[in-house]
Amino acid sequence: xxxxxxxxxxxxxxxxxxxxxxxxxxIASTTQAITDKVTLPALLTPYTTQLEDVTGxxxxxxxxxxxxxxxxxGGLFIALNIGTRFFAWVLVLFVGVTTFYFHNFWxxxxxxxxxxxxxxxxxxxxxxxxxxxxxxxRQIAMEDSRYTGV
Length: 150
Known about the structure:
Oligomer: single chain
Number of helices: 7
Helix content: over 70%
Order of helices and strands: HHHHHHH
Distance between the termini: 14 Å
Low-confidence stretches: none
Radius of gyration: 17 Å
């Protein structure tokens, strides 16, 4: 059974690693998507301005890099059974925020509504899987790594 758990963990994170790598390899498109969809509260403006001055990048581009990195690193660490619970919670938060901003079917009509509802439901399923990973008992997770070499 431990081999199945390891295989399941690896297969589960393929979507995160691929999606994150795609974001990083096409930063311009990711940045544009974030610019179009995400509006940060005005309360954060002084901080985002400071970040932009320090890095020389717009906030949307920084968020694009952060999004890709969170997906790739979170996925890889879960697959490798390193900080699994922590990264599962990080990805729960990431998927929840992403669903709210990018798959807001409640504000749409017609085919866009149905398409985005399907994506939101898929993301809800991903959150369920991540919660299973986060809730997996620590002793068993350690035993799995002893048996599988991961």
